[in-house]
Amino acid sequence: MVEGGMSCVKYLLFAFNLLFFLCGLGLIIAGAVVLTSFSEYAQFLGEGPFGSAATYVIIVGVIILIVAFFGCFGAIKENYCMVMTFAALLIIIFIFELAAGIAGFVLKDQVVDVIKTSASKILDEAGTGNTADITIFNTIEKDFKCCGVNGFGDWENKTNKLGGDGCCISLDSSLNNNRTGCYEYYLNKGDTGKLRNDGCVKAVQEWAERYIYIIGAVGIAWAFIEIMGIVFACCLGRAVKKEHEVV
């Protein structure tokens, strides 16, 4: 059994792994919450990185739970093989997190193009009277307080303008509190001040990036903690190996 300073490292490593386990559990929950949030607007977001990022977080969380077992068991039992396996797996996770972080920053500029392409396609379909796409746009416009892809002018030349009804800020008494047709009503009346002019692409992008940045910040902070875990594991593994060699 290791003694002195290494005994302290052993229990620190055990405590670290309990924290590691809770972090893995937290990542799974956070990933599930983000995935649920994105699923509501999946069609508008298109084939972007948002759902993939949330799925990636869940997978990392599951892997962390498995790795934490090796660390906890190896530290308490002073099992050299399990401690070093833990250290190796921690290094692999660290590399994957680093690679994901770099990829995230590199691909960040493509996010707007993906959302804009998807949103423009839905807007065109809604403009022809597609009920499902009209509903999607109305939901996005009401939830994010925006209008069209780039602004209320996107609906102006469409055959069917019902997709712009989510742009109405308020409803005149003559509309009888009925939102249906309000966009065309205000447009014909020349009262465009009652239509939102902020595009939905920008609004949704900012909303989605908040989630991504939170995940990224947590990932970076945790990466530094992982380095401490790797150091603790290597120190304990070295001490256990030395003790076995002496025996």
TrEMBL record:
Pfam families: Tetraspanin. InterPro entries: Tetraspanin/Peripherin, Tetraspanin_animals, Tetraspanin_CS, Tetraspanin_EC2_sf. Coiled coil: none annotated. This is Tetraspanin. Belongs to the tetraspanin (TM4SF) family. Keywords: Disulfide bond, Membrane, Transmembrane, Transmembrane helix. The chain crosses the membrane at residues 12-34, 54-76, 83-107, 211-236. It comes from the Eukaryota. The keyword Plastid does not apply. PANTHER family: CD63 MOLECULE, TETRASPANIN. It is found in: Membrane. The keyword Membrane applies. It is a multi-pass membrane protein. Its main location: membrane. It comes from Lingula anatina. One of its GO terms (cellular component) is plasma membrane. Disulfide bonds join 146-182, 147-168.
